[in-house]
């Protein structure tokens, strides 16, 4: 039973096959988030619940997946990109323009890791470390998107 739970958690952390895409699995994890958000019309309350539960599940599953995969902060673990993208587009208009802008901004912040994202990425380990830098990248992207909605 324990082996089954560990395999299940690894599959949650890798979003099944998504984390095994041969090129840019993190981008594919974010794209899965884009597909998820654009496919469903969720109220802000439900979005918040999905994000908060996703953070908890992401921390636990990423921690286990690191052990199962045998790599620290493995690129195969993409639940952090999925949830980070959901954070980026939380409580913004769900039009294609905003969703795609959120995708691009989130990927930029996730890849470039401006301060303090880079410090979090370097100093934290395990599931919490895997999730934390992407959550902050999502917050950065979300702030820019919210400013865009106010200005324009």
- Regions with pLDDT < 50 over 5+ consecutive residues? none
Q: Please outline the major beta sheet.
A: none
Number of domains: 1
Q: Span from first to last CA?
A: 54 Å
Order of helices and strands: HHHHHHH
What's the rounded overall pLDDT mean? 93
Tell how many strands the DSSP assignment holds. 0
Highlighted features:
152 residues; mainly alpha; 7 helices; 74% helix; globular
Summarize the structure.
The chain is an all-alpha fold and 152 residues long. It has 7 helices and no strands. 74% of the residues lie in helices and 0% in strands.
Q: What would you say this structure looks like, in words?
A:
The protein has helices at residues 2-13, 25-39, 44-69, 79-88, 96-112, 117-123, 126-151. α2 packs across α4 (79-88). The model has no long low-confidence stretch (mean pLDDT 93). It starts with a helix and ends with a helix. The longest helix is centred in the middle third of the chain and has 26 residues, at 44-69. It has one domain (2-151). The protein has 152 residues and is mainly alpha-helical. It has seven helices and no strands.
């Amino acid at each position: 039973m324990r082996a089954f739970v560990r395999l299940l958690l690894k599959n949650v952390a890798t979003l099944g096959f998504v984390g095994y895409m041969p090129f840019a699995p993190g981008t594919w994890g974010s794209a899965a988030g884009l597909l998820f958000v654009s496919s469903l019309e969720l109220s802000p309350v439900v979005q918040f619940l999905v994000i908060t539960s996703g953070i908890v599940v992401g921390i636990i599953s990423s921690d286990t997946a690191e052990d199962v995969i045998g790599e620290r902060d493995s690129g195969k673990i993409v639940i952090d990109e999925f949830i980070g993208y959901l954070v980026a587009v939380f409580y913004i208009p769900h039009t294609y323009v905003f969703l795609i802008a959120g995708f691009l901004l989130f990927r930029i912040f996730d890849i470039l890791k401006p301060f303090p994202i880079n410090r979090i990425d370097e100093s934290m380990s395990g599931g919490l470390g895997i999730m934390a830098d992407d959550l902050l990248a999502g917050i950065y992207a979300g702030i820019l998107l919210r400013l865009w909605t106010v200005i324009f």
